[in-house]
Amino acid sequence: MDIRSQVSMVFHLDKCIGCHTCSIACKNIWTDRKGAEYMWWNNVETKPGTGYPTKWEDQGIYKGGWEKNGDSISLKGAGKFKGLFNIFHNPHLPVLDDYYEPWTYKYTDLIESPEGDDQPTARPVSLITGKPIDIKSGPNWDDDLSGSPDYARQDPNLESLSPGEREAMFQLERMAFYYLPRICNHCLNPACVASCPSGAIYKRGEDGVVLINQKVCRAWRMCVTACPYKKSYYNWSTGKSEKCILCYPRLEAGLAPACMHSCVGRIRYLGVMLYDADKVQEIAASDGDLVQNQLDMILNPFDEEIIKAAKANGVADSTIKAAQNSPVYKFVKEWGIALPLHPEFRTLPMLFYVPPLLPVMASISEKNNKAQSEQLDPIAKFWDDQWLYDTSTEEIWGSVDQVRFPMKYMASLFTNGDEEKVKDVIRKLMAVRIHRRGKTVGDIDSVKVEKVLSDTRMSADTADEIYYLTSLAKFDDRFVIPPAHREQAFEMLEHTSDMKGATGFGFKEAPSRGM
Known about the structure:
Elements: E1 3-12, H1 21-30, E2 43-47, H2 59-62, E3 66-69, E4 72-75, H3 80-85, H4 96-99, E5 103-105, H5 108-112, E6 124-126, H6 163-169, E7 178-182, H7 191-195, E8 201-203, E9 210-212, H8 222-226, E10 232-235, E11 240-243, H9 248-252, H10 258-261, E12 268-276, H11 280-284, H12 290-297, E13 298-299, H13 304-312, H14 317-324, H15 327-334, E14 339-340, E15 351-354, H16 366-374, H17 378-386, H18 396-400, H19 407-414, H20 419-440, H21 446-455, H22 460-472, H23 475-478
Parallel strand pairs: 1-15
Antiparallel strand pairs: 1-12, 2-7, 3-4, 5-6, 8-9, 10-11, 12-13, 14-15
Helix pairs in contact: 19-20, 20-21, 20-22
């Protein structure tokens, strides 16, 4: 076993309020400069929606991530040979309009315009060309537009739904949305690392953070194509690629990344997990349950054999202790309620999401409330007729299937289409709510609560632990950051597919230890 440590993250989507404080914190620190105006290393998308850049999830357009070829995998749209053919014209790169053209306003027109009958206006001007432009899109352009035909209906994840299911999502009574914050996943099998012809992108040995060496970068932009999450950007001013660095200077000082420190909803968790690097290529090219296969790589930090092997591989005692206290390990492995985003991209992302509760629709029972139902307004009566179920605990699992978001939609995001795996997570989250309501309000029979916990294979203590870490956790509970051991680090190139041997088209510079 080649046991290594990886800084990993969990975002709890039921808690995100879409305030974009995380995005602004990142923007102010890292991308508030020339050439990076359009970059949002952290962005918050509304789902359903097309995201940023537009339709980033559609790899039929962008050719990001890996594809399986027999017993191995290869990059879809980049790599040594594919990249060579596209070196001067890459048809799979997102263009500026897929993001947006950054602009400012000609404020001097407000001050220096001559006296006249019309109110002077500040005309928008491109920050790239300096010429006037007509604004057609911008950051968070489709924010909260769940029901809009131009954005939400273009969500690539809706393709897995039948026409009837898609239309049902946009009925007024069913309309709902949630927020999906995204940063670089700092994957275990990063396509960006494998695609870089100059070898400028690398994973740090001590914590797995993926970085781009600005001195070695030659602006081939293959990383932009290869990253299926489109979290590598091209700086048009410097001629270099850039990406989220997980605020590694802050991590080395024991501080949480800026986006996580500033999160208003406290949805973000960060911790260390141990994994077997020898299995990266095998798991990335595996068949079957991709989510479970990835989770099988993550090792128990309390196992004596794992601890012994980790120490033999240079993992510090402080890092092992941090892994034992990691909130991410609890969410992902111990409780099994956090899932990776688009595991079918085969990058083995280390950012996991607790899915939203969809939400579950509550309605009145036809049997007991028929007279009341007949007095409802037409819209409410229509909904009552279509989605009647008993809200008692006995029928709670039936209600999981009667949610505003079809399970197929959620499964296309988090489990490569496995609806049962999403249902299992939703049931656990609902069981915690039922358990806590029975404990604090007391209006649910204890026998029913025990039945719900038994159905989800949880104890009352586990439900209380999930409740605490989700709702009451203090800062140090959410962010368990080990001391940095940069002086002992080595960069991880040999375990990334396509990166063995030469680094690319004749550039032999080894990645240095800088950004």
